[in-house]
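Hi R.,

As promised on Friday, here is the backbone we talked about, encoded as structure tokens. Could you run it through your design pipeline when you get a chance and send me back a sequence?
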């Protein structure tokens, strides 16, 4: 293995950049260094700005910016193209891609297997990392933001997977991008990432067998959306503060056989949005041991859906616990959940309520006729109307669901926390 320390030579004129403290090298060309490298070489970059775009087609090449080098794409196209296997790009700033959606201009366009992008800062690029028909790659501990001058809807995605399998997306921080999106891609891991102030925190389309664990998603329009994507395992995620637009913590559309376990969905317009899920009725979705709290609606059903199991979840401080768009949510299985509006006792001390928890919709009927009336939810007049409806109903309330074994006091079986 050769190690090239890119420090010597005639560098021409230095151009000071007061905003970064880096100096531009107007003669030395990173592409020339890459083109002369052999498989297995390591290139150590000096403190300088290198002009892109850069094309890598040599396998097992290592480019290390040593936390001091900048590669600037000059707004032309993608900053770096990797068309090789086992390449490592780390400790470098990549900035100023082109702005073409047709060309998928990105900080890094990656087409190859077993590559590593680690500890890089990708900024003012349309897309961050575009992974195209590539497997076994690792995108680890990078910070990614999109083009500064564009509104959120026409920014690019932090990381985009297309027909790619068994990649690890771990410990990244993306912010002020459009989405983090996964298309037709299976068996990938998304772990310990942070996504803040984007549109979709993570959006899956036709992507199966993925694992989403221990991610922090804050102040997005949607936290996680599973669309036509099955057999997802989603565990230990914290999603909070989604209020703009649909405001979902988790959306499920035409998706089956998912396991939604041990997550926190806090302070969102909707905790879980269910739309024709499970798509295959006998392939149930299991929603277990999640905390859904301080939401406008904890669980929203787009139709009379059946086949979901809601077990041992912690529902508290929501304006509405469960709201079915059409008639009812009782065709799903509700088992041993904690409901903070449960009106019952536990005489034998087994922490199971003596009577079932039954949820009826009273004044919520109004939304069925005029959705704009929901604006007045919590107003004194509606509180009085709701009280009168419960005291002496003048219209038949909507029966929403029944939990035969409601939990009397909240006990977190996983973390050992009690109410």
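Update: got your reply. Pasting your designed sequence below so it's all in one thread:
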């Amino acid at each position: 293995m050769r190690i090239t320390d890119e420090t010597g030579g005639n560098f021409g004129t230095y151009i000071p950049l007061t905003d970064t403290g880096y100096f531009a090298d107007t003669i030395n060309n990173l592409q020339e260094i890459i083109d002369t490298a052999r498989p297995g070489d390591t290139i150590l970059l000096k403190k300088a700005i290198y002009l892109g775009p850069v094309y890598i087609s040599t396998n097992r090449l290592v480019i290390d910016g040593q936390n001091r080098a900048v590669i600037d794409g000059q707004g032309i196209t993608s900053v770096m193209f990797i068309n090789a296997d086992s390449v490592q790009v780390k400790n470098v700033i990549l900035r100023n891609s082109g702005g073409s959606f047709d060309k998928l201009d990105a900080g890094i366009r990656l087409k190859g297997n077993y590559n590593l992008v680690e500890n890089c800062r990708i900024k003012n690029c349309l897309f961050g990392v575009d992974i195209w028909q590539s497997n076994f790659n690792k995108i680890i501990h990078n910070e990614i933001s999109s083009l500064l001058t564009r509104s959120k809807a026409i920014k690019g995605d932090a990381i985009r997977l297309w027909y790619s399998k068994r990649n690890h997306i771990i410990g990244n921080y993306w912010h002020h991008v459009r989405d983090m999106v996964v298309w037709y891609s299976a068996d990938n891991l998304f772990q310990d990432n942070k996504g803040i102030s984007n549109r979709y925190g993570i959006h899956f389309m036709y992507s199966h067998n993925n694992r989403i664990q221990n991610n922090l998603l804050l102040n997005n329009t949607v936290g996680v959306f599973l669309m036509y994507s099955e057999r997802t395992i989603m565990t230990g995620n914290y999603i909070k503060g989604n209020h703009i637009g649909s405001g979902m913590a988790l959306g499920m559309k035409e998706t089956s056989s998912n396991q939604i376990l041990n997550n926190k969905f806090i302070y969102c317009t909707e905790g879980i949005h269910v739309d024709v899920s499970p798509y295959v009725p006998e392939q149930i979705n299991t929603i277990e041991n999640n905390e859904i709290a301080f939401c406008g609606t904890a669980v929203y059903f787009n139709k009379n859906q059946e086949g979901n199991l809601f077990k041992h979840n912690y529902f508290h401080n929501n304006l509405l616990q469960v709201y079915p768009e059409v008639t009812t949510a009782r065709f799903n299985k509700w088992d041993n959940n904690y409901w903070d509006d449960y009106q019952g006792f536990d005489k034998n001390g087994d922490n199971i309520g003596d009577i079932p928890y039954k949820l009826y919709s009273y004044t919520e009927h109004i939304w069925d006729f005029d959705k704009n009336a929901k604006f007045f939810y919590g107003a004194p007049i509606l509180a009085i109307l709701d009280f009168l409806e419960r005291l002496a109903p003048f219209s038949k309330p909507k029966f929403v669901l029944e939990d035969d074994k409601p939990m009397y006091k909240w006990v977190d079986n996983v973390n050992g926390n009690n109410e």
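One thing I noticed while checking it: Residues 6-27 have pLDDT under 50 and may be disordered.

Thanks again,
M.
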